[in-house]
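Researcher: Next entry in the queue.
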Amino acid sequence: MAKLIGRLAPSPTGAQHIGNARTFLAAWLSVRSRGGKVILRIEDIDSPRVKSWAVEQAIEDLQWLGLDWDEGPDMPAANSPFIQTQRIERYAASFQQLQRAEKVYPCDCSRSDVAAAASAPHDIANAPGNQNFELIYARTCYNKKVRDASVLSGKYSWRFRTEPSEIFFRDGFAGEQIAELQNQFGDFVIYKSDGLPSYQLAVVHDDHEMGVTEVLRGDDLIPSTFRQLAIYDFYGWEPPSFIHLPLVVGPDGRRLAKRHGDTRLSWLREQGVSAERLIGLLAKSLGWTDSLKEQSVADLLALYDLKRIPKEPFVFGEKELNRLLR
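Model: Structure for this entry, 326 residues:
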């Protein structure tokens, strides 16, 4: 059997919070409990939102939780570098394959153009835990060829040509997932107008090149999985197995964010909260313990069980915060 390889992939667009910690903990335990290898990768290509201080803080947060890794920015290996903005040339080479196959086309539509042309907002594949809607691109630029980019005067991005076919995958937690990519998602951006690859292309490229065999993340990313599987199919690469868990939400049912108060891991440390106390709360929320007993990540290795994780999102409110701050 191929070696199990998972990854922790924080995005330094801000501070890591309790919701991130819960997903990182589950991802790490899923791999370590079966003797697998863990990679740390910093996904920082979302340049307008990236915070310069957030990379170092994300690493500190993970270390505070007690999570470790075998390869990462601080542990160079054959697959280095592990920071996406240092891998731009690799993405460009992969993108050129898409261009040669005319699998992409240049699109100079603005956001307002896309909104005006879309007939109606579509639920993003009815993804569990996802409450957002997305405008499906009307393929205004579909007839453009790669060579047409040379005559475009303004900014333009590149869109992936989707096919009218169903994509299916069996999620390790959420079960069978199926979507008709073209109708439900449309031709999505794969290279942005700022000259950087989209999240979809970068993640597929990195997971393939780094040999990742399992991806555990929040179920808000189920829609991204369909897009990524289409990219895997183009290159003929074997995709990893996917596990999508329910998110941590606030009392209003929306994904945990600043509007729900301060849940940053760095802030919890400043308040004197121990990692063991937080892990104990997260372990209970994941169905592995019945009490709020303080735990270390090592304590949970024998308790990890995907089948015991609740199907509903974990609601984190004032009561849960007070338990941490007691």
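Model: The chain has two domains: 5-86+246-325, 102-199.
Researcher: Noted, moving on.
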